[in-house]
Design goal:
Strand 4 and strand 5 form a beta hairpin. Helices cover 0% and strands 49% of the residues. The strands form 2 sheets. Strands 2, 4, 5, 6, 9, 10 and 11 form a 7-stranded mixed sheet that branches. Strands 1-3-8-7 form a 4-stranded antiparallel sheet, with no helix packed on it. With 128 residues, the chain is mainly beta.
Length: 128
């Protein structure tokens, strides 16, 4: 079993920055891709960003393009989300997700069903 551990959330003022981290607990785990989703009380879980492990191709939701950057640490099996110019509407619980390299079928980054493992979630609150 693979456990994803998130860190780096918290409270920040609008316009500020936060950096989320997510590490896989099992070093032998090889992912095909890792990503971030978020969910607020008024919205369903939505895609934020993803990165494909092999070639570092990145994918972003339109709402975060130009403000958020996803990156990976291949050696430590970790993924990061640098969030700049934060807005109150970015307030949500952020979830890390990973797709195993052994997963079958096509990969469409915004589809949560394309991921095999999920973190517990971490709160990000942006005050106005």
């Amino acid at each position: 079993q693979v456990r994803l551990v998130e860190s780096g959330g918290g409270l920040v003022q609008a316009g500020g920055s936060l950096r989320l981290s997510c590490a896989a607990s099992r070093r032998t785990f090889t992912s095909y891709a890792m990503g971030w989703f978020r969910q607020s009380p008024v919205k369903e879980r939505e895609f934020v960003a993803a990165i494909r492990w092999t070639d570092a191709n990145t994918y972003y939701a339109d709402s975060v393009k130009g403000r958020f950057t996803i990156s990976r640490d291949y050696a430590n099996n970790a993924v990061y989300l640098q969030m700049n110019s934060l807005k109150p509407e970015d307030t949500a619980v952020y979830y890390c997700a990973a797709r195993s390299i052994d997963a079958s079928g096509g990969y469409y980054p915004p589809n949560p069903r394309n991921y095999d493992y999920w973190g517990q979630g971490i709160q990000v609150t942006v005050s106005s």
